[in-house]
Amino acid sequence: AGTERARASAQTSLHVPYGDGEREQLDIYFPTDPSETFPALVYVHGGYWQCLSKDDSGFAAPPLVSRGVAVVAVGYDIAPKGHMDTMVLQVRRSLVFLVERYPRIRGIYLCGHSAGAHLAAMVLSTDWTEFQVVPDIKGAVLVSGLYDLEPILHTYVNDALSMSREVAQRNSPMRRVPPAAPAACEVLVAVAQHDSPEFRRQSQEYSQALRAAGWSVSLLDLAGVDHFDIIERLSEDSYLLTQV
């Protein structure tokens, strides 16, 4: 419902293809009063890598487009069609496409929730030399994410993903924290008071790993919210995370 409201009220470009895959599309919500250049919040949805889509992901747009920020919802191939390596590559390629296609975007802020926070965190470990483009990522907001995939290998979540231990390790941000470059973005790791102990543990340990590698990182423990409304409330102007 929040996404429908956003689509009705904002200037949009929907279903913009950034590749040939069925779900390789972006929904772009443009600022109400765009200046010559404007920042963009790039949102990567969650759903345990196997449900939801960009079509559920525009709810955060209204408070941001009214402040001059574009919001971009990223589509990617969810499991079982999508392999974990593929999803990570798709999100990286979506940023390359944005930079090349929309030169008026100045400064990208990544935001991901749950599985989307995992994919956004994997973007931070990207070697951009293989893409010939370096997106200007100013910040990353990682909300209730998973940063070590090994614990889910023997759970029902892996039934659709079919990850081997090697795939899980290769795609675990905890294991791929690069030393912070001089221009490394700021990272905000947010976790809900009522998230499960595993989400809370991983958020704490990943933020510590980033800090140890020299990144500028803050851990925000949000009171009174759970795994779902921590992100859904981004539709509210007054919500702490929207303000941040």
Strand order of the largest sheet: 1-2-4-3-5-6-7-8
Strand content: 15-25%
Shape: globular
Radius of gyration from the alpha-carbon trace, in angstroms? 17 Å
Q: How many distinct helices? A: 9
Largest sheet: 8 strands, mixed
GO molecular function: arylformamidase activity
Protein name: KFA formamidase
Pfam family, one: BD-FAE
Domain BD-FAE-like: 26-124
What would you note in describing this structure?
By secondary structure, the protein is α/β, with parallel strands linked by helices. The chain has a single domain (1-235), classed as Alpha/Beta hydrolase fold, catalytic domain (Rossmann fold). The protein is 31% helix and 23% strand. It has helices at residues 2-9, 61-65, 84-101, 115-124, 157-161, 165-170, 197-212, 229-232, 240-243; strands spanning 11-17, 25-30, 38-44, 70-74, 105-113, 137-143, 186-192, 216-222. α3 packs across α4.
